[in-house]
Write a structure and sequence with these properties.
The structure holds 2 protein chains of 2 kinds.
Chain A: H1 6-23, H2 30-46, H3 50-73, H4 78-82, H5 85-91, H6 96-125, H7 133-157, H8 165-191, H9 197-225
Chain B: H1 3-11, H2 14-46, H3 60-87, H4 90-121, H5 130-151, H6 155-183, H7 202-234, H8 239-245
Helix pairs in contact in B: 2-7, 3-4, 3-6, 3-7, 4-5, 4-6, 4-7, 5-6
Classes of the chains: A mainly alpha, B mainly alpha.
Chain lengths: ~230, ~250
């Protein structure tokens, strides 16, 4: 029996996931709506004072996007686990980390990128100064793939469970703490007129490392959960 | 096979471990209590009050050993998790999972005593300082390991998944520590050093070290007690476990 090349297998995984998302394209908007609702709640709770909101705007946008991503994580493997596709991926002769990297990439593309595109709107609602917006977008572009990669490792550990929501939050939170500190730190520094390059570079370094290591860890975790 | 490897293999087999740890546990508990009593007497009665903080500093005799133990227990858990994942040794899985609740308890005590000390000294129960935050994240890591272990039905698969999470945590702890250090720092630096002179008077140092020894021994006593119970559960189908757990005579009906 002949198998296709690894590249064609990865392409097939990516094409399939994109197609599945496209067929249910209404679902892709859910994280954005969720983040929007969270952001709307803050002025209602804290009062509409523009100066006060502007001071904490970047942090709120980050936390809202982080929680939206956390809730979306569950969909990464859920459907594939239920219909047995995930077992076939694990059994396939191609390197599992590469296939998973493809899945994580599509998941990031369909859940995180809409959030990044919505970020200017969210920041505008909270009166974030216009000059900070590029830094916010830059930090988001570096931080969201990192969140997806780290989250994928934890999802892989909880994949067989029925109700994993709260547990997943507990597993993921310690991993998200440094990302949040650096990403929000960059925006805070930019808002205060201080140099903001260092935290962004840290994020980039972490992303480079996670790109290599997280798919491997994710594959190892998945092999433990499906055995 | 030399004696050391033989001993290692023997201690790694559940029946032998169960028997030997059963013999050791009461002695370890007793030793821990004796050392802790002497250490507490030395710390609370014999040691002089601090020139700045007067008697309030005495909480370090509980706080600092527990803080050391919270890291030691994590390190111990991670080493056993690594052994469990690489060589699939059942005892290591059990030990790694048994050390998680003990370590979590030490971490919780560290946070609680720190808060009690912080109220009169810093004027607040809690501050978002680097060390406090990383200790809190450490507690979340422990709770994550415990939660994952109890969420999966199959015991051995649960232990492997939780062990993997513990290993991820090992990479994460220093990253969290340095990121929050960069973020905010108020907590004082270390005063006890392994190399070079410590910045603490010897009348305060010896009770501290004795209490650190006591908490280490207590950790192992508590660890063995927990590991024995989960071993009995895990091996409940085996002859030795039945013979041990059931009253004599009932084992071979």
């Amino acid at each position: 029996m002949r198998y296709g090349t690894t590249a064609s297998a990865c392409a097939a995984v990516i094409r399939r996931d994109l197609l599945l998302t496209w067929r249910r394209r209404g679902d892709a908007l859910n994280p954005v709506l969720f983040a929007l609702i969270v952001v709307v709640l803050f002025p209602l709770a804290l009062g509409p004072e523009p100066n006060q909101l502007a001071r904490i705007a970047a942090g709120i946008v980050f936390v809202a996007i982080l929680i939206a991503g956390l809730l979306a994580l569950d969909t990464l493997f859920r459907a594939d686990y239920d219909d047995g596709t995930l077992e076939q991926l694990v059994l396939s002769p191609h390197p599992l980390p590469l296939l998973l990297a493809g899945k994580i990439f599509v998941h990031w593309l369909t859940t995180a990128v809409p959030l990044i595109l919505a970020a200017p709107l969210l920041a505008g609602m909270l009166f974030l100064p216009r000059s900070v917006l590029p830094v916010l977008l830059c930090a988001l572009a570096l931080a969201t793939p990192l969140l997806s990669l780290l989250g994928a490792v934890c999802v892989a550990l909880t994949v067989g469970m029925r109700r994993s929501g709260m547990l997943l939050a507990l597993l993921v939170l310690p991993l998200y703490v440094p990302v949040l500190i650096f990403a929000a730190g960059a925006c805070e520094a930019a808002q205060a007129g201080l140099p903001f390059i260092a935290p962004l570079l840290w994020l980039g370094a972490a992303l480079a490392m996670a790109l290599v290591l997280a798919p491997l860890a994710c594959a190892a975790a998945l092999r433990i959960s499906i055995s | 096979m030399n004696t050391l490897t033989l001993w290692f293999h023997k201690f790694g087999s559940p029946p032998t471990f169960y028997r030997v740890s059963g013999l050791l546990t009461p002695w370890l508990y007793a030793a821990a209590l004796v050392f802790a009593a002497i250490g507490l007497y030395g710390g609370l009665v014999l040691a002089p009050p601090d020139y700045q903080q007067s008697d309030a500093y005495r909480i370090i005799f509980v706080h600092v050993p527990c803080a050391w133990m919270s890291l030691f227990a994590y390190f111990f858990m991670a080493v056993n998790a690594f052994i469990a994942l690489v060589w699939r040794i059942k005892i290591s899985e059990t030990l790694a999972m048994a050390s998680a609740p003990v370590g979590a308890a030490f971490t919780a005590i560290t946070l609680a005593t720190g808060a009690i000390w912080g109220k009169p000294m810093w004027g607040t129960w809690w501050t978002w300082d680097a060390r406090l935050t990383s200790e809190l994240v450490l507690l979340f890591l422990y709770l994550g390991v415990i939660g994952l272990y109890h969420a999966i039905e199959d015991r051995r698969q649960a232990a492997r998944a939780a062990a993997f999470l513990a290993l991820i945590g090992v990479v994460n702890v220093p990253i969290v520590h340095f990121s929050v250090k960069w973020w905010n720092t108020l907590h004082q630096g270390s005063t006890v050093r392994l190399f070079g002179p410590s910045a603490i008077d010897s009348s305060m140092l010896w009770p501290l070290l004795l209490l650190a020894l006591a908490t280490h021994i207590w950790f192992f006593a508590s660890l063995f007690a927990r590991a024995r119970v989960s071993l009995l559960e895990l091996e409940s189908g085996k002859d030795w476990a039945r013979a041990d757990a059931l009253p004599t005579g009932a084992a071979h009906e």
